[in-house]
Write a structure and sequence with these properties.
This protein has 13 helices and 16 strands. It has helices at about 5-25, 30-40, 45-55, 120-140, 175-180, 195-205, 265-270, 270-280, 290-300, 305-330, 340-360, 365, 380-395; strands at about 30, 60-65, 75-80, 85-90, 95-100, 105-115, 150-155, 155, 165, 170-175, 190-195, 215-220, 225-230, 240, 335-340, 370-375. The strands form four sheets. Strands 6-5-4-7-11 form a five-stranded mixed sheet. Strands 14-13-12-15-16 form a five-stranded mixed sheet, sandwiched between helices. The longest helix has 25 residues, at about 5-25. The protein binds zinc ion.
Length: about 400
């Protein structure tokens, strides 16, 4: 074979490995027969690729499943212990770093509270580097053992090398965060918008599994939403973020930190909810100091009629209107309330949110949509960030990137 043919053969093998591995990652465990049917590849190709993946420690056989009238079929699954990835959630109230196995099983997390706006990029970068070192050392690993590190930021990230972060809520303008981190982290490192990566994690492992079009709402101090279609969740083009938090729900309403008025975030962002509560007659001062604990305190106090219940009811109405707008605009089949504030508030306000959506979304769209609280727990955003290195390794056919 000449070199061009060898190259083409190698590319084709890698492409087939990537396609089958991605299917196993999202839908496994499945049998070789399922892989043949879903991929359209020949049985010989599937058999060869699966053997290679087993030999390389990427996938393993996972028991038998009965088949109609035929021999039992062997299931194949992706091995979580194939490698480790780290995910970093840079938020306005905390920086959280999670260590995950390759199938996004949580191994350990570290959370560092931070104080609001004006986070210095240099100090954030130092904290991230130290935190990644800390989570890997907890399980006897070294940062160089990682397949990669993903970082989720609450802002826009320019594509390509030398990615720049624009995150007004952090006070960051064209911040070269990725390059800053790459000075100290030698494994592949990627930075992307946190709502977008969270959307992927909810589609792969959370409440969005099996959805054709999901809207994942990220609720925290800031409010965002990612729209993800299931056609191929491994491709970035199938996921886009929106500044949902800055869509206006009230003409001439409250001032928003973006400079506009009446934005959704000015009503359902965590700080807005707490300020709103403290302005009500009968509101009691909080016993805790930080935003996350205070919101949990507010929810815990709302056991009967009073200003706490009133504020949660109001929040549910505003959030319900925001979600009804999303439904009317995008016709999703699921809306997932995620992020730390979504996890704190969601269970308490979900029935009232649904009631508001019923009043404001068009009937024929409502019939097709479910509204759920995210299932990924408090490390959801870090897990979302960890999808970034996972995607790259899947796209590379299960070969770690240098
Ligand atoms: Zn705004």
């Amino acid at each position: 074979m000449n070199r061009a043919v060898q190259q083409t053969t190698r590319d084709l093998r890698r492409h087939n490995r990537s396609a089958l591995l991605s299917h196993l990652y999202l839908h496994g465990p499945v049998s070789r027969q399922d892989l043949i049917r879903e991929s359209g590849l020949s049985s010989a190709t599937v058999s060869n690729v699966v053997s290679d993946l087993i030999n390389d420690g990427v996938v393993a056989e996972a028991g038998l499943v009965g088949s109609d009238g035929g021999r039992p079929r062997t299931l194949i699954r992706v091995r979580g212990d194939f490698g480790h990835v780290a995910g970093v959630d840079i938020g306005e109230t905390h920086i959280q770093i999670g260590l995950f196995d390759y199938t996004l099983g949580t191994i350990t997390t570290e959370t560092y509270p931070v104080a609001g706006a004006g986070l210095e990029p240099e100090s954030v970068a130092r904290l991230v580097v130290a935190g990644v070192g800390e989570v890997v050392s907890k399980v006897g690993l070294d940062p160089t053992d990682l397949l990669g590190v993903g970082v989720g930021v609450p802002g826009a990230v320019t594509a390509g090398g030398g990615e720049l972060v624009y995150a007004p809520t952090l006070g960051w303008q064209a911040t070269p965060l990725a390059d800053m981190l790459r000075r100290d982290i030698s494994v592949p490192l990627y930075v992307d918008n946190c709502a977008r990566t969270l959307g992927k994690a909810e589609m792969w492992r959370g409440a969005g599994r099996g959805a054709a079009r999901a809207v994942v709402a990220l609720l925290g101090v800031g409010v965002g939403a990612a729209v993800t279609t299931a056609a191929d969740p491994l491709r970035d083009a199938t996921s886009l973020t929106s500044e949902w938090g800055h869509t206006v729900i009230n003409v001439d309403g409250r001032p928003c930190r973006c400079g506009s008025r009446g934005c959704l975030e000015a009503y359902v962002g965590a700080k807005a909810i707490l300020d709103d509560y403290l302005g009500l007659p009968g509101a009691r001062p909080f016993e805790t100091a930080d935003t996350e604990s205070r919101l949990a305190e507010l929810v815990a106090r709302a056991t009967g009629p009073g200003p706490e219940a009133e504020i949660l009811d109001r929040t549910a109405k505003y959030l319900g209107i925001g979600i009804a707008n999303l439904i009317n605009l995008l016709n999703p089949d699921i809306v997932v309330l995620s992020g730390w504030a979504g996890a704190t508030l969601g269970p308490a306000i979900l029935p009232a949110v649904r009631a508001t959506v019923t009043r404001h979304a068009l009937g024929y769209l409502q019939g097709q949509v479910r509204i759920r609280v995210g299932e990924l727990g408090p490390e959801a955003v870090a897990m979302g960030a960890a999808t970034l290195p996972v995607v790259r390794v899947l796209a590379n056919g299960g070969f770690p990137l240098a």
